[in-house]
Design goal:
The complex is a heterodimer.
Chain A: H1 5-13, E1 19-21, H2 24-32, H3 34-40, E2 43-45, E3 48-52, E4 56-60, E5 74-77, E6 80-82, E7 90-94, H4 116-124, E8 129-134, E9 145-150, E10 157-165, E11 172-174, E12 181-183, E13 186-188, E14 195-197, E15 216-217, E16 220-223, E17 226-233, E18 256-261, E19 270-275, E20 279-287, E21 289-291, H5 295-301, E22 309-314, H6 318-321, E23 328-331, H7 332-337, E24 339-342, E25 345-351, H8 355-370, E26 381-382
Parallel strand pairs in A: 1-2, 11-22, 14-25
Antiparallel strand pairs in A: 2-21, 3-20, 4-7, 4-10, 5-6, 5-8, 8-9, 10-18, 12-13, 15-26, 16-17, 16-20, 17-18, 19-20, 22-23, 24-25
Helix pairs in contact in A: 2-3, 3-5
Chain B: E1 7-16, H1 25-33, E2 36-43, E3 50-59, H2 60-73, E4 76-79, E5 84-86, E6 106-109, E7 114-117, H3 128-131, E8 137-139
Antiparallel strand pairs in B: 1-3, 1-4, 2-3, 5-8, 6-7
Helix pairs in contact in B: 1-2
Classes of the chains: A alpha+beta, B alpha+beta.
């Protein structure tokens, strides 16, 4: 018997909705059977807590007296430059932005101790940050400089906008070279001395809805400790990759673009993050509820770590050079055991996405739904799926002709 | 009397006053107190305070007498654990540190996927410092 979102919301309203996490549903479905489980369970909650560089936030800081046009000038939050190519007092802060005088990796390998992601974490923690700006001044916006403390509560709007998040599966990174390398997948030891992975596996949102049958534009989600929404597919959304028979992608595939009110979020679930030798990024907590509309959807949510495969990729050569290819295939049960076998070698593994925190998010979202604080939404449009023909393209460089 | 002869192992941090930097302190620990000395880290510069991380192995009696000797000549002794800090509030339990920690001082419980830090296993090698993306590890040395 199929259910509708309205029927599930009615049960939530009455406090009668049956909600399980994406971890709990595994044993439940194997004990009760898919058919019975699909009848009994209304919602499965997912979670992920991992670094995502394409995160940021936009702000409206309110007008000064006399007015200043930050747009087209230079503005900084705690010395981190923000993007001002917008109206007078709107700007965008990117997670990976760094103070102009940060040495980057000029001092090897580079600490990247502070940047946009840390400003976001501090603002969400309620702290004051320094807003400094210079402007060119106009008849209607005469002020040319600004130096002030500002906190989140002083702002009109403060909105998290992450254009790519919640990657559906990801590479497992190794280093085949003879020296240590510093990557966005962490510090990789030479000769496959370690391997890093970055997915919550069986708890990860898009791995529980592999063919995007429920998640789409307008899906209400847990975002950074508050409530957010799916804007649409994220950048580099790539549904056409190879999949298992159950539809689970074997390589990085779907992504989400998400947004939400920063004022409702918590520094517990938005964390400034520094990858030595690589840069600054934001670790973001996301939880997506999956409505159990039918047996097929329930079967998807019962996916186990051992059924999710990932590709082992060399980050010393094939990744930086853009050479496709995998040197091995492993599953998330193996990755989480702490050791994988690649080309006959046993390699210790490390995660970059916290499974413990992912579980915490799935449990919070479950509690919100059970207590009637969170209702499901019917997406306006589902995400582009395998039949969309969408495939990400590399940039084909076309040399610019020099004219005399 | 048996207890006094039980073998012990201790990880300690020594702070040397400048006037002792040119004295054969460690060799005295070995010769007079029959202690095995494994120097894990050392920073000793003439005319400045020196810092030394040692692992001492020996019989309890020798260990007690050796530590007494150190404090008598003015070397400050503290346990290594005090110099290594795991900021639990900053740790996200991502497990990035787990594959590089050589002694399993940083370890993860595989069912809960919760990371923990066991001070007594830490040798202050600092491999975890650049690997932790959240600055959860700090070594004050």
């Amino acid at each position: 018997m199929a259910k509708t979102i309205e029927e599930i919301n009615e049960k939530i309203r009455k406090g009668k909705a049956v909600v399980l996490t994406a971890e709990e549903i595994i044993d439940y479905a194997s004990e009760k059977g898919v058919k019975r489980a699909a009848q009994e369970v209304d919602v499965v909650t997912t979670g992920t807590f991992g670094p995502m560089c394409s995160s940021g936030a936009y702000f409206n800081v309110g007008h000064t007296k006399p007015r200043i046009k930050l747009g087209g000038g230079k503005s900084y939050l705690n010395d981190v430059p923000v993007y001002t190519g917008l109206a007078a007092v709107d700007f965008f802060l990117g997670a990976t932005a760094m103070p102009e005088d940060d040495p980057r990796n000029k001092i090897f390998p580079g600490k990247f101790a502070y940047g946009g992601a840390y400003v976001i974490e501090e603002l969400v923690a309620g702290k004051d940050v320094r807003l400094t700006a210079t402007a060119y001044g106009t008849d209607c916006y005469p002020k040319k400089a600004l130096e002030t403390y500002i906190s989140l509560k002083d702002m009109n709007e403060a909105v998290l906008l992450n254009i790519r998040n919640a990657y559906q599966n990801y590479n497992v990174a190794v280093n085949l070279s003879e020296k240590v390398i510093y990557t966005y997948m962490g510090v990789l030891q030479p000769k496959m001395g370690n391997a890093t992975y970055c997915s919550a596996g069986q708890l990860s949102p898009l791995l529980n809805d592999p063919l995007y049958k429920t998640i789409g534009i307008g899906t209400r989600i847990f975002l950074g400790g508050g409530v957010g929404y799916v804007v649409g597919n994220g950048t580099q959304h790539n549904p056409g990759v190879k999949r298992t028979e159950a539809g689970v992608p074997k390589a990085p595939s779907g992504t989400l673009c998400v947004t939400g009110d920063l004022k409702m979020m918590s520094p517990k679930w938005l964390r400034g993050t520094s990858y030595t030798g690589y840069g600054v990024t934001l670790t973001v907590g996301i939880g997506v509820p999956i409505p159990i509309l039918n047996e097929e959807i329930l079967r998807f949510t019962a996916v186990r770590d051992e059924e999710i495969l990932a590709q082992v990729v060399d980050y010393s050569d094939s990744y930086p050079q853009g050479i496709p290819g995998s040197i091995g295939e492993v599953n998330y049960k193996q990755l989480k055991s702490g050791r994988i076998m690649v080309e006959g070698k046993e390699i210790p593994t490390s995660g970059l996405s916290s499974y413990l925190k992912a579980r915490g998010i799935a449990r919070i979202l479950k509690e919100w739904i059970e207590t009637g604080k969170f209702f499901l939404t019917q997406p306006v449009e589902l995400l582009p799926s395998i039949d969309s023909g969408i495939a990400i393209k590399p940039l084909k460089e076309r040399p610019i002709k020099k004219t005399a | 009397m048996g207890e006094r002869w039980i073998m012990q192992k201790k990880r300690i941090v020594l702070s040397y006053p400048p006037h002792l930097v040119d004295q054969p302190v460690i060799s005295k620990l070995v010769k007079d107190y029959d202690l095995g000395v494994n120097i894990m880290r050392a920073r000793i510069t003439p005319k400045e305070q020196g810092r030394l991380v040692l692992e001492l192995t020996g019989k309890r009696a020798g260990m007690e007498a050796g530590l007494k000797y150190l404090s008598e000549i003015g070397v400050e002794v503290q346990s290594l654990a005090q110099d290594v800090k795991w900021h639990e509030d900053r740790c996200t339990h991502c497990t990035a540190c787990i594959s590089v920690c050589p002694t399993k001082a940083l370890d993860v419980q595989r069912t809960s996927m919760e990371v923990s830090f066991k001070r007594d296993k830490c040798i202050a090698c600092e491999l975890c410092i650049p690997v932790c993306p959240y600055q959860a590890m700090e070594i004050l040395f």
